[in-house]
């Protein structure tokens, strides 16, 4: 879903094989609309990404984070309801103001994978997932008040956070 006048994009499903390109299309539509005579704001006003998602694919998540970081316009991330797993990392990675509503919940956890195949292939997958997980800890450390070691230790099990705790940890900038 997309609201042109308010520059709102909704991320309210599982993050899957279509999420990245869907977001890219919607951002481009907003930027095109901003060049029209109908738009009353500034070209560089932030775009708002409204998140209520249980998470999903780690590769799509990394692509979304890279895309958000590559834009010349800031992306405010706003959690209303839940941002679990990949959605929580996307929320944390916003390039504008990162917000959460008072009664929303965040959840971070270790990467997971469904692995099958030859032992060599399973080992290669495990090594890759460990590297991606390490990258995520570094990303979270750069965007919060905790270091990568803290994230690694605390994400061994599902880490559920209230809005107040998310603000305290520096995952979000404000509670709305």
Which H/E pattern describes the elements?
Answer: EEHEHEHEEHHEHE
Oligomer: single chain
How would a crystallographer describe the biggest sheet? 8 strands, mixed
Structural class: alpha/beta
Beta-strand content bin: 15-25%
Task: Compute the average pLDDT.
Answer: 93
N-end to C-end Cα span: 21 Å
The number of E-state strands comes to 8
Estimate the helix proportion, in percent: 40-55%
Task: Give a summary of the structure in a few sentences.
Helices cover 43% and strands 20% of the residues. It is an alpha/beta fold and 176 residues long.
How is the secondary structure organized here?
Elements: E1 2-3, E2 8-11, H1 19-34, E3 47-53, H2 58-70, E4 75-84, H3 86-92, E5 98-100, E6 105-108, H4 119-143, H5 148-154, E7 159-161, H6 163-169, E8 174-175
Parallel strand pairs: 2-3, 3-4, 4-5, 4-6, 5-8
Antiparallel strand pairs: 1-2, 6-7
Architecture overview:
This protein has helices at residues 19-34, 58-70, 86-92, 119-143, 148-154, 163-169; strands at 2-3, 8-11, 47-53, 75-84, 98-100, 105-108, 159-161, 174-175. The mean pLDDT is 93. The chain is globular, with a radius of gyration of 17 Å. α2 (58-70) links the parallel β3 and β4. The protein is an alpha/beta fold. The chain contains six helices and eight strands; from the N terminus they run ββαβαβαββααβαβ. α2 (58-70) packs parallel to α3. The longest helix has 25 residues, at 119-143.
């Amino acid at each position: 879903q997309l609201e042109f006048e308010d520059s709102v994009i909704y991320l309210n499903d599982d993050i899957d094989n279509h999420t990245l390109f869907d977001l890219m299309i919607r951002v481009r539509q907003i930027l095109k609309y901003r060049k029209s005579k109908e738009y009353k704001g500034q070209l560089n006003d932030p775009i708002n990404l409204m998140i209520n998602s249980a998470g999903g694919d780690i590769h799509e998540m990394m692509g979304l984070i890279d895309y958000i970081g590559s834009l010349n316009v800031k992306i405010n991330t706003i959690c209303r309801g839940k941002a679990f797993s990949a959605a929580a990392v996307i929320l944390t990675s916003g390039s504008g103001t990162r917000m959460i509503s008072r009664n929303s919940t965040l959840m971070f956890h270790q990467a997971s994978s469904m692995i099958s195949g030859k032992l060599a292939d399973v080992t290669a997958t495990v090594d890759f997932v460990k590297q991606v997980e390490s990258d995520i800890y570094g990303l979270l450390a750069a965007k919060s008040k905790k270091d990568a070691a803290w994230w690694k230790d605390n994400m061994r099990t599902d880490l559920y956070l209230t809005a107040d705790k998310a603000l305290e940890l520096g995952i979000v900038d404000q509670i709305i």
